[in-house]
């Protein structure tokens, strides 16, 4: 059974966020007339994904805007959510 993670100050629900260190591949570069380096083609910024970033710290952040408390999570964080009731996880599904 799981329970909602609550703020240690006000008791509201909290969200989880991670600070990450990573790299973004913007592709080939050009030097503009204004002296600024830019990507040659950039319709959308490159996504930050598991293969180009490393989590550095995990934080719990209070969802109550009047509180706004944030603290470094001391418990282990697993990014996989719990299965809904009745769903199987792993093993033989046959």
Description of the structure:
The structure is a single chain. With 94 residues, the chain is an all-beta fold. The protein has a domain of 59 residues. It is 0% helix and 30% strand. It contains no helices and five strands. It has a three-stranded antiparallel sheet, with no helix packed on it. It is elongated and about 55 Å long. It starts with 13 loop residues before the first strand and ends in a 22-residue tail after the last strand.
Mean pLDDT reading: 83
Which percent range fits the helix content?
under 10%
- Gross morphology: elongated
The ordered H/E elements are EEEEE
Distance between the termini: 25 Å
SS element count, helices:
0
Gyration radius, rounded:
20 Å
Return the structural class: mainly beta
Strand adjacency order, main sheet:
1-4-5
Largest sheet: 3 strands, antiparallel
Number of strands: 5
* Model regions low in confidence, pLDDT < 50 over at least 5 residues: 90-94
Task: Bin the strand percentage.
Answer: 25-35%
């Amino acid at each position: 059974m799981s329970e909602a993670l609550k703020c240690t100050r006000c008791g509201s629900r909290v969200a989880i966020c991670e600070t990450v260190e990573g790299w973004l591949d913007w592709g080939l570069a050009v030097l503009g007339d204004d002296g600024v380096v830019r990507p040659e083609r950039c319709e959308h910024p490159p996504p930050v994904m598991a293969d180009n970033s490393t989590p550095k710290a995990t934080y719990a952040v209070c969802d109550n805007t009047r509180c706004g408390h944030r603290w470094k999570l001391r418990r282990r964080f697993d990014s996989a959510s719990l299965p809904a009731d009745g769903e199987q996880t792993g093993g033989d599904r046959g």
